[in-house]
User: Fold this.
Amino acid sequence: MEDEYLVVIDGKPQGPFTIEQLKGLNIGPGTFVKTRTMKDYKEVGEVEELCRLFGFSHQAIARPQYYASPDVRMLAVVIDYLLILVVYAVILVIVVSFIESKYLKIAVSLSGLPLVPITKIIMGIFMEASSRQATFGKSWLAIKVTDEQGRRISLGRSAARNLFKIVPVLTLGIGYLSGFFSKRQQCLHDKLAGTLVIKGRLV
Assistant:
């Protein structure tokens, strides 16, 4: 039995359609399709069978299809910081339990706070360059960091991306808000580093 395709038309999946029925639709290389055996939607230009059918050039590397919005990404950041703070609090409780002076306990507690954002940056650099391509927060929200062709980023690019985050901070958040007005949902640090944050399914 030949595969039948669901086709995204006007933003909504329709079908399934047989190969013969697809010929009567207004199909382009950027049209999203899916069969029952595919895990996710793909562009027609990524499906060799359909490229032959419609005479399109087959794309050897799958392009990113769905981009994570800044609000979802901010939620991932919040999750990461909460995890780090929990670990920090546990370590702090253990450390201060050996300190008798009340003022010294406060001093130790406050002096360790700068380690929280530093830990977040280091975590982002190594985890986003790993095979996971995401921090814990991003993974739990099914989003990941790629280059602009949808490939895993290098450690150097990951370091640049995470360090460039200081620019949106210095612009009082404007660099983050710019992601809402970007076609590919790129915040300022993504554009500077040449990265994308993508999600794995059509919603």
Q: What stands out?
A: The radius of gyration is 22 Å.
